[in-house]
Amino acid sequence: MPRKPASPPRQGPARTPARTPACRRSRAAATTGDEAAFLEAYDPSAYERLSVCVDVALLSAFEGHLFTAVVKRHEHPFQGKWALPGGFVRPDESLHAAADRVLAAKAGLDRVFVEQLYSFGDPSRDPRTRVISVAYYALVDCDRFPSPADTAGSVMSARIVVPWEGETGGPVQLVALNGSRVPLAFDHADILGMAVKRIRGKLDYTPVGFQLLPSTFTLRQLQDVHETVCGKALNKDSFRRKMLASGLLEATGDRQVDVEHRPAELYRFVKRSAV
């Protein structure tokens, strides 16, 4: 009679890693005495520390494409590769302040729309140590977007190629102005893909697309931005009816100047900061 296969060994509960003496003292102090005494004796070195950085996906829309700005890394890891503007969070600043600082220092931009996007914390995302990235996305109209390359060649505008439809999500690809592919360092292709997915999802219920336009614009320019973000054509009449009925636009009373075609009416957003 064939023997019954042996059952796999029973798995017990996961064991908690052994705590250091300093860690045990900190936990004991947390349950005795008053809070002031606990904080006075608290030893932060009793616990492992993680590094926190911010990475900013800067987006703009023009010529029917989404663009982003990337910076060349001059140090290891990924030396010579391109990455989103980013940096470690300083002990004395908030996450949002860090994102604003990074944009100003590495992209030369301030007072632009910036919103927290997502946290990326895969243990292997950075080969140096455990680094958690709190990602942001920033939207800016094409007139303020960084030039294709600065004099040092360390900042580059690149076209975003989205290999998925709708809000499927996933990494995206970058193409330089000369048509060559631009591989990104770390997990920045995933961060950029998440930013595209986010603004696609917000187009229908927030005026997020307004942040990609100048202060006054035509309905055609507004539709161009929406089509660029969505990656598909929209019905002209339906789109205009929807926008004019939204309560988000008001006519300026002015029209385009210095154009070869019939000057179109100019509009502005009633509340540009509402996103």
Could you outline the blueprint of secondary structure elements for this entry?
Elements lengths: L20 H9 L5 H7 L9 E12 L2 E8 L9 E2 L2 E3 L6 H13 L5 E8 L10 E9 L15 E7 L11 E3 L12 H15 L16 H12 L5 H10 L3 E7 L9 E5 L6
Parallel strand pairs: 1-6
Antiparallel strand pairs: 1-2, 1-4, 2-3, 2-7, 5-6, 7-8, 9-10
Search tags:
3 domains, two-stranded antiparallel sheet, Arc Repressor Mutant, subunit A, alpha+beta, Nucleoside Triphosphate Pyrophosphohydrolase, 10 strands, 275 residues, eight-stranded mixed beta sheet
Structure description:
This protein is α+β, with helices and mostly antiparallel strands. The protein folds into three domains: about 20-45, no CATH class; about 50-200, Alpha-Beta Complex (Nucleoside Triphosphate Pyrophosphohydrolase); about 210-270, Arc Repressor Mutant, subunit A (Orthogonal Bundle), CATH 1.10.10.10. It is about 25% helix and about 25% strand. It contains six helices and ten strands. It has helices spanning about 20-30, 35-40, 95-105, 190-200, 220-230, 235-245, and strands at about 50-60, 65-70, 80-85, 85-90, 115-120, 130-140, 155-160, 175, 250-255, 265-270. The N and C termini lie far apart (about 70 Å).
